[in-house]
Amino acid sequence: MDAGRLVLLGLAAAVAAIINSVAGGGSLISFPALLALGVPPVIASATNTAALTPGGVSSAVAYRAELRQRWPLTLVFAACAALGGVVGASVLLAAPPRVFELVVPWLIGGATLLLIVQDRLAKPTRAGAVRAPTSARVWLVALGFAVIAVYGGYFGAGIGMLTLALLALLGSATLNQQNAMKCVIVASINAAATLYFLVAGRVQLVTALVMAVGAMIGGYSGAAIARRADPRRVRWAVAAIGIGLTLALAVRYYR
Fold first, then answer.
1. Model confidence pLDDT, tens digit, residues 83-103
2. Cα–Cα distance list, 244 to 22, 164, 220, 239, 241 (Å)
3. Mean pLDDT of the region 58-68
4. What does each C-alpha distance from 255 to 33, 101, 102 come to in angstroms?
5. How far is CA 94 from CA 100, 191, 200, in A?
6. What CA–CA distances, in Å, run from 46 to 89, 140, 199, 223?
7. By C-alpha distance, which of 181, 180, 26, 159 is closest to 85?
8. Helices 205-226 & 175-200, crossing angle to 10 degrees?
9. Cα dihedral value 237, 242, 245, 247, nearest 10
10. 142 exposed, middle or buried (CB, 10 Å; 0-12, 13-18, 19+)?
């Protein structure tokens, strides 16, 4: 891939990481950018996962103040999610590429729908109104992360919204705290899936490295932007892109 295309993909990854920090749905930017530049769908999905993983890690670092009191729970959830991520990655590579082509418009459409209804899925409580979750609820949510992480390892667009929805069951205090935990959990899913993809040789390494640099820059700056930006406006802009992309890929793969 020539230098000009790599620069465009690096910018797309930076924008995707910022969007993930602010509102979620960043893969609706970076994944189609890979497709537009001729990367096969399965390889594009694996490369996109590998590229955005460092962005999630840098966002988690930027949110370290919000994570200070939530590390024990976050690490439990991240470990469960990592297991599911490996399962999802193995399913992606085991199935014929044509299967992924047929389901990807539905996956993107579903991720777009999640983006639209995110406010109803995850409603943080007011600061100071935190209630300690019961052990049963904690383990139920941990099991939920293991399940949704299978989807995260397979494709992953919208996994941030599903993560926030599960975290809402715990009664987390603020959106920033939920976002902080989300970044760690999603990064664990992506990291586990990325290791599987790398071992299987399904990642375009140079492309992923360039995109990873963009994602790290976007992920770290995105946490600061998230504290000031209106996530609803960002969400609706990305949702509009998702709707258009769903229709375009449906025409492309079903005609």
1. 999 999 999 999 999 999 899
2. 21, 25, 28, 9, 5
3. 80
4. 21, 12, 11
5. 11, 19, 11
6. 8, 29, 12, 25
7. 159
8. 180
9. -110
10. middle
